Amino acid sequence: MSYSAPVDDIVTALKTVADLDVRLANGLYPGLDADTVRAVLDEAGNFAADVLAPLNWSGDRVGARWQDGNVSTPPGFADAYRQFSAAGWSALPCSEEFGGQGLPEIISSSVGEIWNAANLAFGLCPLLTQGAIHAIEAGGSDALKQTYLPKMVSGQWTGTMNLTEPHAGSDLSGLKTRAEKQADGTYRITGTKIFITCGEHDMAENIIHLVLARLPDAPAGTRGISLFLVPKFLLTADGTPGARNDVVCAGIEHKLGIMASPTCIMKFGEQGGATGYLVGEENRGLANMFVMMNSARLAVGIQGVAIADRATQRAIAFAKERTQGRSSTSSGAGMAPIVEHPDIRRTLLTMKALTQASRMICLATAAALDNATYAADPEEAKAARNLAALLTPVAKSFATDVAVDVASLGIQVHGGMGFVEETGAAQHLRDARILPIYEGTNGIQAIDLVTRKLPLEGGNVVTDYLSGIGDCVTKLHASDNAGLGRTAKNLKDALDALSAATRFIGKSLASDPDAGLAGATPYLNAFARVAGARYLAEAALRDGASSSDIALARFFAENCLTAAVGLSDSAMNGSATVLASEGLLA
Amino acid sequence: MSYSAPVDDIVTALKTVADLDVRLANGLYPGLDADTVRAVLDEAGNFAADVLAPLNWSGDRVGARWQDGNVSTPPGFADAYRQFSAAGWSALPCSEEFGGQGLPEIISSSVGEIWNAANLAFGLCPLLTQGAIHAIEAGGSDALKQTYLPKMVSGQWTGTMNLTEPHAGSDLSGLKTRAEKQADGTYRITGTKIFITCGEHDMAENIIHLVLARLPDAPAGTRGISLFLVPKFLLTADGTPGARNDVVCAGIEHKLGIMASPTCIMKFGEQGGATGYLVGEENRGLANMFVMMNSARLAVGIQGVAIADRATQRAIAFAKERTQGRSSTSSGAGMAPIVEHPDIRRTLLTMKALTQASRMICLATAAALDNATYAADPEEAKAARNLAALLTPVAKSFATDVAVDVASLGIQVHGGMGFVEETGAAQHLRDARILPIYEGTNGIQAIDLVTRKLPLEGGNVVTDYLSGIGDCVTKLHASDNAGLGRTAKNLKDALDALSAATRFIGKSLASDPDAGLAGATPYLNAFARVAGARYLAEAALRDGASSSDIALARFFAENCLTAAVGLSDSAMNGSATVLASEGLLA
Asked: Is B446 within a domain?
C-alpha cells in the first residue's frame, strides 16, 4: 500500500502544541515561515512515498544479511540512503556550524515521523546518527567536532550508540568494556557490545561508533563510565577513511521485526585494541550519553507515532475496499464496505485518535525543546527545559505502547488477511514491538517520570502542567460547542483523578518508594491520556478548528480518556499485592 | 524453556466455577472422581511437556511446507500426532458410542489448554477435528456417523471446517462453492475455500472436510447453504481410504505465526467435482456448522488461556534469572533479579491475573455446557444452555485479547532479548495474534453478545448472571478478610456501571441499534473484567483458599477491574462520534 504523509494532521498538531502561527509570525523560529514548514513536510512526504516506502516490504522479506563480518542491507537501501543524504535530509536538524540546516526540533520530529512511517528499518539509521551527532556536539572537543561532524551531518558517515552488553542492559553499572589510555592520547578499547543498531552496514563509507567503556582505575558503577568515539575506519591525514580499526561485527540478531536494520554484536579489540577518542571527560561518559539518549527517546516516541499512523492508513484503506455484511447506512443490494459497521468504525477511530494524541504529546515535547533553545528569557528557557524533561518519558512510552496496540488493531481490521504476511499489516506489529523496549524500556520511562520528573522544582513542574490542563477544562466548560459532547466532564474527572495520584506518588516517594514505583506504569498511562485529551481539546477549541478536529477530540475524551480514572485509582491503590505476593510468582 | 502444566491453577478454577468437589461427590460427572481428574491433568501435562513442547520452537522455525499439492508438517509432528492418538487423547472428549471416553467439557477444555500451551500449532488440528466430530454427531445420518466418527474419534483421521472463501469471511451469505446432487444421492462439490487449517497434511491417513456449499436452486443468502462431508480419500467397501477425491491443496499461507499449522487454499472439483455427502438437511447447513463453531469458539478461548499461561511461565522464569539494578528487597552486593523490581512484578502479576481470570471464564462456560448435558431437570438444563450461550462470546473474545496482551507483556519483561526470536517470547505473540480473528472475530463476538445474547429470555439470562455477581459482592462485604483490600468496593462499582450499560444497550437495541453496536466492544471488555473479578473473588472466598488465591483476586480487583467503569461509560456514552465522523475516516 502506498504511503501518504499526514501533513494536515502534523500541521494541526504543530499549530496546537507549538503555537506555530504565532511563533512564526513573531520570528521565534529563525528563518522559518508557514510556507516553508509546509513545503518541507510535503517534500519529505514525496521522498518517503517515492523512495523509502517501496523498500519497506521487500526490506522486511530480505532482511539484513551478515557474512564474515560484513553486513549487506536489502536491495535498494544503500541507494536510498545516498539519495536521502544527497537531498540534504540528513543535515536538516543539524547545527549550521557543521553544514546542517539548523531547523528546529518540531520540524525534525515531524519529518522523522514521515521517514519512519514509510520505512522504520530505514529511519533508524539516521535517527541514531542524529543522536551521535548530539552527543559529540555536547561533549566532544573542537577537534573531534571539526573532524567528524561535517561528514556525519552530510550523511556520508553514520553513527551508532554502543551501550548494551550481555549483562548490562537497563543497568549500565555492570558494563565491562575496557579503555586504556595510550601515550598518544588515544585509548585502546576492548570488549563486546550487543544490540548495536547499524553497527555494520554497506550504506555509508564510514561508521562512527560512540562506545561506553571503563578505564582501568575507574570508580565502580555508573560514575566510572567514559564515552569514546571509535571510527570503523581510522582517518588518514586528509580526513578520509583509511586503515580499518580493530572493531568487527561478529553477527546480527534474528529478530521479530525491523528485519532490514542490522542489530549487531560488535567486538572491539580482538586484535589488541580498537583506537578510540575520548568524548568529554573521563568517567563522565554517562552524562554525555544521556544527551544522546534523551534525544533518541523523543525520536523513538516519534517512531511510535509513525507506525501507528501507517497502520491506521492501511486499515482505513482496507476497510473502505473490503465488503462484508449489510450496514444500517449501506445502500444497494450488495455487501457494505466494512468501514460502515459501527464496531469497525470504533476500531479505526481508536487507532486514529490514539495516533494523533501521541503525535501531539511528542510534538509538544519537541516544541518545549525548541523553546529551551530559542527563548530569550532564561527563566522561560529553564521552564521549557523542565517541561521537555517531564514530557520525554511520557512521549516515548505512550507513543510506543500506542504503536503496538494500534498495529495490533490494524491486523484485526483486516481479519484473516491481517495474519497473512503479504498484506503488510503484520509487519507493522512486528516492527513496532521493539519500540517499547529500546532507548530505555517503557517501565524505565515510567520510573523516570515518577522518581526524577515529578520531583522537578519541588513538584512545581508537574503542578504547573496539570494547572494548564485545568485551564483547558475551564475553556471547555465555557465553550458552547455541543459537538464536544462529554469532553469537558471527562477531562475534569480524569484530571482530578490524575492530580490525586500525583499527590499520592509525591508523598509515597518520601515514605514508601516502592509503593510509588509499583504504580508508575498506570500513572504514566493516565498522565498520557489526560495530556493527549488536553491537546486534542485545544485543537478543537482553536479558531479555525474543523469538524474533524472537534469529532476527534470528542471521540478520544469519550472513548480513550475514560480509562484514566481507573488507571489513577490503580496507581494509588493497586500496589499492596504488587509488593507482597511471593506465592504468586513462586 | 520447558513447559509445566498449571494443574493447581486449573483445579482451583474448576472447584470455583464448576463446583467440582460437590458435583463429583454427588456423582454429577458420571464416572469421574477427584483423583481421576488430577490424574488426567497430570498425564496430559507430562505428555505435553515430553512430546509436544519440544516441537514448538522447531516447528515454528521450519514451518509447514507445500509442494505439488502435498503438505509436510515439521519434523516430529507426524510422530507426535500418532503418539497423541495412540495414547487416547483424541478420544478423550468424544462420545463413548463412537469409541470416545465421554469425559465432560470441563476436562476436555482443561486438557485442551495444556496441548495448546505446549504447542499451539499442534493443538489446532485436534481442536478442529473435535469441532467436525460435533457437527457430524449433531447433523449427520447414522450411516455417516458409523462410517466416519470412529476413525475421527480415534485420531486416525482428522477433520476440517471449510467455510471461508475469498469474498465470504465473516459474512457467509456470499459464498459461491456449489453442490449438485447426483443420481446416487451424493453431491458434486466445486469451488475454492481459503484459510483451511490442516486442509492438507501428512499426520493422518485421511482428512474429512466439512464444506459449506450452495445447491443450484438454493435461496440466496445464509438460508441457502448446505453442509457436506468431503473426504480426502473416498472409502472402499471395507471403509478404508481408497481413491483420491477431487480436492487438492493449491497452496498454504505465509503467516505471522502458527507456522507449523498449514493454512490451506483448497480447490474442490478441479477435475469435475469432489464427491460429498450431505450432513443434515439441504439448505440447513449453517445451523449444523454453528454447532461446530460454538464448540470451536470456546476452544479458541482456551487457546488464548494457553498462550497467556505459557508466556507468563516464560516471563516469570526469565525475571528470576535476569539480574539488573538494585531493588529495595535485594540482598548482597550484586544486581537483583528483575522479579524484585516493583514495575516488573506488576507486569508479571498482570499477566498471571489476566490469565487466571480468562481461564475461569472459559471453564465457567465449559461447566455450563456440562450442566446443560447432565442436568436432570429440563429447566436447569435450559438455564445452563443459556448461560453457556451468554458466556461463549465473552470467553472467546476476552481470553484471546488477553493472550495477545499477555504475550506482548511477556516480550516486554525480556527487554531486548524478547525481540530476538531465539528467546521464544516473540513466538507467543506471533502465534496469539490469530486468536482474536478466527472462529468469528472478537468484534463479531461482541456483536453476538449484544444483539443475540443479552436479549435471551427477554434479558433475564444476563440479569440473573449480574445478580449472581451481586451475591458475590454481598459475600465480599460480609467477609472480614483484610487481605482482599478494595475487592468488594471495586467489584460493586464495576457491577453498577456494567448493569447501567446493560440496561442502556437493551434499550438502544430497540430504538437505535447502531448505538448499541458501537458500544459492543467496550461493553464486552467490561463484562469480562467483572466476570473475571467475580470468579477470582469466589476462589478467594472458598473454604481452603490459599493466600495466593486471595492475593490474586485482590490484585485483579485493584488493577485489572478498575478499567470496567470507564469501559462501561464508553459503551454508553461513546458512540456519537463513532457513528457521525465521516471526515475523520475520509
From this structure: yes
Give, rounded to a whole angstrom, the gap between the first and last alpha carbons of chain A: 47
pLDDT of residue A113: 98
A335 in B contact zone (CB under 8 Å): yes
Nearest to A342 by CA among B245, B451, B248, B563: B451
Nearest CA-CA distance, residue B381 and chain A, Å: 33
Q: Is 90 exceeded by the pLDDT of residue B580?
A: no
E strand or H helix at B11, and its extent?
Answer: helix B7-17
Say if A522 is an interface residue toward chain B (CB within 8 Å). yes
CB contacts of B328 in chain A (<8 Å) are 513-514
3-class secondary structure, A428: helix
Pick from B166, B163, B162, B232: nearest CA to B201: B232
- Return the C-alpha cell found at A14: 504543530
Q: What is the pLDDT of residue A327?
A: 86
* Cα–Cα distance for residue pair B404/B406, rounded to 1 Å: 6
Q: List, in order, residues 6 or more apart from B275 with CB less than 8 Å away.
A: B186, B187, B188, B189, B230, B234, B245, B246
Q: What is the arithmetic mean of pLDDT over A385-413?
A: 98
Query: Which CA distances in Å does A23 have to A18, A380, A542, B89?
Result: 8, 15, 15, 71
pLDDT of residue B328: 83
CB contact under 8 A, B342 and A514: yes
> Looking up cell 494523533, which residue turns up?
A356
Q: Please check whether residue B322 lies inside any domain of the structure.
A: no
Q: Which of B171, B347, B517 sits opposite A324 (nearest CB)?
A: B171
Task: Find the residue in B nearest to A196 (Cα).
Answer: B416
Record: contact A411-B567, CB cut-off 8 A: no
B453 located within any domain: yes
* Structural domain boundaries enclosing B447: 442-577
Q: With an 8 Å Cβ cutoff, is B255 touching chain A?
A: yes
Q: How many domains does chain A have?
A: 1
Nearest CA to CA, how far is A214 from chain B (Å)? 18
Note the pTM of the prediction, 2 decimals: 0.98
3-state helix vs strand vs coil in chain A, percent to 5: 60, 15, 25
DSSP, collapsed to helix, strand or coil, labels residue B54 as helix
pLDDT of residue B57: 97
Name the β-bridge partners of B213.
B226
Grid cell of B127 as nine digits = 481442536
A357 touches chain B (CB under 8 A): no
Q: Which of A281, A439, A558, A582 is catalytic?
A: A439
> Is residue A439 annotated as a catalytic residue, yes or no?
yes
pLDDT band at A329 (very low <50, low <70, confident <90, very high): confident
Q: What is the pLDDT of residues B30-59, one digit of tens each?
A: 889 999 999 999 999 999 999 999 999 999
Q: How far apart are CA B206 and CA B151, in angstroms?
A: 9
Contact B245, B274 (CB under 8 A): yes
Residue B25 forms contact with A (CB below 8 Å): no
Which pLDDT does position B28 carry in this prediction? 84
Q: Residue A527 pLDDT > 90, yes or no?
A: yes
Closest CA in chain A for residue B446 = A343
In a domain, B133, yes or no: no
